Amino acid sequence: MFTFLKKISPLTRCRYTVRSIVQVTADPVKQEVHEVTIPVPWGYVAGRWWGDKKKQPIVAFHGVQDNAASFDTLIPLLCTNDVPVFAIDFPGHGKSDHLPAGIPPHYGDVLVFLRNLFKYYYTDWKKLTLIGHSFGSSACFAYAALYPDDVAQLICIECAHLRLASNLPEQMKKTFEKTLKYEKSANEIPSYCYNELVTWFYKGRKERLSLESCKVLLTRGITESKINKEKYHLSRDASVKLDALGQFSVDFWNTLASRIRAKTLIIEASSGLYRKGSIRSVFLSQLDTLSRNAQKFDHVIVEGGHHVHLDDPQKVAPIINSFLNPLMTDLLVWAFVNVHTLMHRKWWGDPNSNVRPILAIHGWQDNAGSFDRLIEQMKLDRPILAIDLPGHGWSSPLYPTMVYHEVDTVLVVRRIQKHYNWDKVTFLSHSLGGVTSFLFSSLYPEFVDVVINLDLLKPLEEDLQKRAEDMGPLIDKIIDLMKTAPSQTGWTSEELKRRWIKGSGNSLTEQSAEILMKRGLKEIKPGRFIYSRDCRLKAWQLQRFELSENLKFAKNIKCHFLLINATKSPFYKLFSKNSNEIINILKENAKTFEMITVNGTHHFHLNDPDLVGPIIVNFLNKVNQRSKFIE
After folding, report:
1. SS3 at position 49
2. 3-state class of 197 per DSSP?
3. Separation in Å, CA 457 to CA 167, 195, 299, 436, 571
4. 252 pLDDT more than 80
5. In the annotation, is 532 catalytic?
């Protein structure tokens, strides 16, 4: 029996109903259960399929550090009119294989994973019905917003679709550092006898779910020790404990909520995650936005904790049963993976010198040759290390199904710093490299003495509505590029030069294009070439920071900072529009801050090094006089 209570909310436009559950009953439905594995480049993704494997299922996604067994007690109580249910272990969870080590988790990669699953693996599935718990519901929520025409029904249990990061830079830094830590300790996994492991797992969850529920999750969550057959360890990838990079802001989640058209059911636990504090008002605001746009909307509160669907499925099943209509309609697995790439670089000066080099980082789709003319012009008595970022120039591409994220270049720099044992980093950065140096100097202010950014100060911001509209097609483009094979016929070098110049928005001169082509072309047959860079780089960035977040980053920057802008660059108008607050913060917090504007295109440092070289040398000399930073 249900008791219906009208929602009392400070949000006057709120028009949804909250159901308080008094008593419910449900009888288990017997279904055949199949273990399913889906091949992916790094191994397999696993799951449990309840019911007829020939029919399109309802698809269920668990929370972080859980697995598909999260739904073991709930699914037998669902009355789905013979529609099967497919509960999937996210990569690195349950019985699914771990991703190759080395790259931190990214929220956007999960959406690429889902898109591959739904569009390219199970190609005959049409309208989707999605059930998610916690992080799994967050992913389903975002997918339903990015692809509103593809999702018919959305069921979110304790939905985790918010981010209230009090210190985003520190959070990102922690994720990078733990990624490095987990790489080193990958073979040092503690093992326990079964009862000890159950107790440890239960206490690790801070007793937020029952002991019996812990045992259910461990049916897919443990692996026998290779050393001692009587002991076990958790099978999940340690990296799933990390805060994912690129999580969406509160404002962007609100924008996404306005795009969902699916029939939507939100199930909230009375002792769940969103009942108290400032997070409560944010949660209700998002539900209000969702209620005004979804085809159907219901918000139900049940007695229980965050894992109420697992601890007390008899309270949740009738709500879902009443929501699902009899016309159940209408899922690829790829994902976010990593290999340790071979990094190529150009070292100007004596590599055996005791003097720490300046680190030069090029822009998106360029390479280390971007600095050739500038370095020759400056004639510094200090070494310069110019690198090819992963997938650029002569450096190895990332794993075939991996997504390129600009924030990952921060981890690239951290690896380089640790490899050479530098106590400080001095940056000379162009375009994307400027994003790298801005973020690195914010996350690791203790390790940076000088930043010199050419034509890009910080990560770009984007209108939230436009970002929401563009993200779905962008994910499709990324997946299409993953499947794009290199040309077998190629082009002449002249043809590629013209394409490169045009692709730069005519920012490059012919001479500059030819310099980049030295590291940017690969000969596949006599006189025929292709680009050496990874074609996936043609897709723009999934992650975007908002101005409020960039302001937080700027407050952490404590080094000497030089910014050189170009009047004919496409970024110049963007810079003039929304950078004043950042500049004021840098003027206040950085050791020194200078900004100079020159007449030139985006690649002014390569086209006309005589224009910019003296500015950089003069700045370095002034810094050297003030702090004697050259070792």
Report:
1. strand
2. helix
3. 21, 54, 43, 10, 10
4. yes
5. no
Task: Classify residue 571 as exposed, middle or buried by CB count within 10 Å of its CB (0-12, 13-18, 19+).
Answer: middle
Burial 485-510 (b: 16+ CB within 10 A, else e): eeeeebbeeeebbeebbeebeebbbe
Share the mean pLDDT of the chain.
87
Q: Where are the domains of the chain?
A: 2-167+243-323, 345-463+540-627
Cα(482)–Cα(312) distance, rounded to whole angstroms? 42
Q: Look at strands 263-269 and 151-157 and give their pairing.
A: parallel
H-only helix segments in 156-302: 168-184, 194-204, 211-218, 250-257, 278-291
Q: Which CATH number, 3.80.10.10, 3.80.30.20, 3.40.50.1820, 3.90.850.10, labels domain 2-167+243-323?
A: 3.40.50.1820
Q: Distances from the Cα of 456 to the Cαs of 410, 460, 605, in angstroms?
A: 16, 9, 13
CB 587, CB 555: distance < 8 Å: no
In tens, the pLDDT along 39-92 reads: 888 889 999 999 999 999 999 999 999 999 999 999 999 877 678 999 999 999
Catalytic entry in 249, 291, 431, 437: 431
Starting at the edge strand that comes first in sequence, how are the strands of the sheet with 151-157 ordered? 2-6, 17-21, 296-302, 263-269, 151-157, 128-133, 58-61, 85-88, 43-50, 33-40
204: tokens are: 């690790």
Please say if the pLDDT value at position 94 is more than 70.
yes
The burial class, CB within 10 Å (0-12 / 13-18 / 19+), for 190 is exposed
In tens, the pLDDT along 381-404 reads 899 999 999 999 999 898 888 899
* Other CB atoms within 10 A of residue 240 CB: 18
Decide: helix, strand or coil at residue 389: coil
Q: And the tokens for 29?
A: 């439905």
Q: How many Cα neighbours within 13 Å face the side chain of 612?
A: 32
345-463+540-627: same fold as 2-167+243-323?
yes
- Round the CA-based radius of gyration of the chain to a whole number and report it: 27
Q: How confident is the model at residue 19 (pLDDT cuts 50, 70, 90)?
A: very low
DSSP string of 113-167? HHHIIIIIISTT--SEEEEEETHHHHHHHHHHHHSTTTEEEEEEES-------S-
For residue 167, name the pLDDT band (cuts at 50, 70, 90). Answer: confident
What's the CATH fold of domain 345-463+540-627?
Rossmann fold (3.40.50)
Q: Quick one: average pLDDT of 571-588?
A: 85
